[in-house]
Specification:
By secondary structure, the protein is α/β, with parallel strands linked by helices. The protein is built from 16 helices and seven strands. It has a seven-stranded mixed beta sheet, with helices on both faces. Strand 3, helix 3 and strand 4 form a beta-alpha-beta unit. Keywords: Acyltransferase, Transferase. One of its GO terms (molecular function) is 1-acylglycerol-3-phosphate O-acyltransferase activity.
Length: 401
C-alpha cells in the first residue's frame, strides 16, 4: 500500500471510527467483487472505503457522476480518491470499460445502482447497469445497508455534522447473474430486496405488498426501519430473529425519538429470551419496560405502544390486577383511535389479550375493511385468522369482505 493510501486509512479511521456505532452481517469476500448500497450522501464513499480497508481489502474504486470532475481541483481530488467519471443519462462505455478493468485486475468496485443520491433517505428505483457489469465481469455483488449517513452529511451540506451516528448492515454476497435482460432485472430486484432487508425499507418496486402508503410515513426514518426489522424478527426463526433484533437495536441507538424508543423497547424485551444469564435477562427486561413506558407516556394515541404495554401488564400476577390494567388500556386505545383505521389491528390485539373478544372482533372487522394497498398482505391475513379464531369459524376471504 502506498504512502498516500496509508495516510488516507489513518484519516478515515480517525474520522469514521467515532461515527460508526457498529457493523453487523457477513464479512466481505475476497476481491474482486462489487459493493452496492443505498446512496443518500457523499459520505457513503468514506464509510464504505473505511469498512473495506478495515477488512484488509484494497482501496475501492467508485463510479461517480462526471459533474464532480468539472473543475481541476475537484477532478484531482476525486481521481485520487478512487473516482471513475460516469456520464449520466445514457450508456457510458468508457466508464464501463474502466470499471471492468478494475475488477479484472482483482480490485473492488463501489457502484450505486440507484444512479444518484436519495434526498429523502428512501430507496429509489435501480438501474440495470449493476447487473450487466456483474454478469460480464463474473464477480459477486455485496449489498450493504447504511443508516444515518445522510444525517452526517445531508444533501446540500458541505461539512459533516457532529454527534451523528452511523450503522452498517452487510448482507451475504450474491453470485453474478446470467446474461440477458430478464435475468438482469430479476437479479437487480434480488439485490435491492437484500438492501431493503438491511435498511427496513420496502419500496413498491421490490415488494408491493410491503410498500407503505404515500405521504410522510414514506420517509425512510430509523424508527420506521427498526419497526420493519422487529416485525420481520417476530416471523423469523430463532437464530435469524436474534440477528434482526440486534439490528433494530443498532439502528435506533442514539436516536432521540419516541417511536424509536418503542421499537428499541420491543427489541430489548425479546433479547432477554436469547440469553441464559439471569442478570442479563433482568437487565434486558428492565430496559425494555423503561423504554416502552416512556413511549406510552409520550405517545398516548399510539395503539402499538399501548398494545405492547398491555401485553406486559397481562403477565403480572392476578393479585396485582394485570388483567384489569390491560383491559383499561384497551379501552383507552379504542377511545383515542376511533378515526384511525391503520391501528385497528393493534387495538383488536389489545382487546383480545385483555379477554374482551367481542370488542376485539369488532376492531378486526374494521381493519378488514381496509383497502389491501393500504396495508400489507401478511397483516390482512393475520387479521382474518384472528377473527376466525375469535368466532371459531372459517377464515373470511377477500370476497367476503
Amino acid at each position: 500500500m502506498s504512502y498516500l493510501k496509508r495516510l488516507l486509512l489513518l484519516v478515515l479511521k480517525a474520522w469514521v471510527d467515532r461515527r460508526v456505532i457498529g457493523v453487523l452481517g457477513d464479512k466481505p469476500p475476497a476481491a474482486p467483487f462489487i459493493v452496492t448500497a443505498n446512496h443518500t450522501s457523499y459520505f457513503d464513499h468514506v464509510v464504505l472505503a473505511w469498512w473495506l480497508l478495515c477488512n484488509g481489502l484494497p482501496y475501492p474504486k467508485f463510479l461517480s457522476k462526471s459533474e464532480l470532475f468539472d473543475s481541476p481541483l475537484s477532478a484531482w481530488f476525486n481521481r485520487r480518491g478512487g473516482g471513475i467519471p460516469v456520464e449520466r443519462g445514457g450508456a457510458d462505455m468508457d466508464a464501463f470499460e474502466a470499471a471492468r478493468k478494475v475488477l479484472a485486475d482483482g480490485g473492488v468496485l463501489v457502484m450505486y445502482a440507484e444512479g444518484t443520491r436519495s434526498r429523502d433517505g428512501w430507496l429509489r428505483a435501480p438501474r440495470r447497469g449493476l447487473a450487466t457489469l456483474a454478469a460480464e465481469a463474473g464477480v459477486p455483488v455485496v449489498p450493504v445497508g447504511l443508516f444515518g449517513v445522510n444525517e452526517v452529511l445531508p444533501v446540500g451540506s458541505r461539512w459533516p455534522r457532529r454527534r451523528r451516528r452511523i450503522a452498517v448492515n452487510v448482507a451475504s454476497p450474491l453470485a453474478p447473474p446470467e446474461a440477458g435482460r430478464a435475468a438482469g432485472q430479476e437479479f437487480i430486484l434480488r439485490v435491492f430486496a437484500r438492501i431493503a432487508g438491511q435498511t427496513g425499507q420496502w419500496p413498491a418496486f421490490v415488494a408491493p405488498e410491503f410498500a407503505p402508503a404515500p405521504g410522510p410515513a414514506r420517509r425512510g426514518s430509523r424508527a420506521a426501519a427498526a419497526h420493519a426489522l422487529v416485525e420481520r424478527a417476530f416471523r423469523a426463526q430463532s437464530g435469524e430473529a436474534e440477528e434482526l433484533f440486534r439490528r433494530a437495536l443498532l439502528v435506533t441507538r442514539g436516536v432521540r425519538c419516541d417511536y424509536a424508543d418503542l421499537e428499541r423497547g420491543r427489541a430489548a424485551g425479546q433479547m432477554a429470551g436469547f440469553t441464559r444469564n439471569p442478570f442479563a435477562q433482568l437487565a434486558w427486561a428492565l430496559r425494555s419496560r423503561r423504554l416502552i413506558w416512556r413511549s406510552v407516556r409520550r405517545l398516548p394515541g399510539n395503539a402499538l405502544a399501548w398494545h405492547v404495554w398491555a401485553s406486559l401488564m397481562e403477565r403480572l400476577p392476578g393479585w396485582l390486577g394485570g388483567d384489569r390494567v390491560a383491559a383499561a388500556m384497551g379501552h383507552r386505545v379504542a377511545v383515542s383511535l376511533t378515526q384511525d383505521h391503520r391501528n385497528a389491528l393493534h387495538t383488536a390485539l389489545v382487546f383480545r389479550d385483555a379477554g374482551r373478544p367481542q370488542e376485539a372482533a369488532r376492531w378486526l372487522e374494521l381493519f378488514l375493511q381496509l383497502d389491501p394497498a393500504a396495508a400489507d398482505r401478511l397483516r390482512i391475513q393475520r387479521g382474518r385468522e384472528l377473527l376466525a379464531e375469535l368466532r371459531g369459524g372459517e377464515v373470511p376471504s377477500a370476497a367476503a369482505r
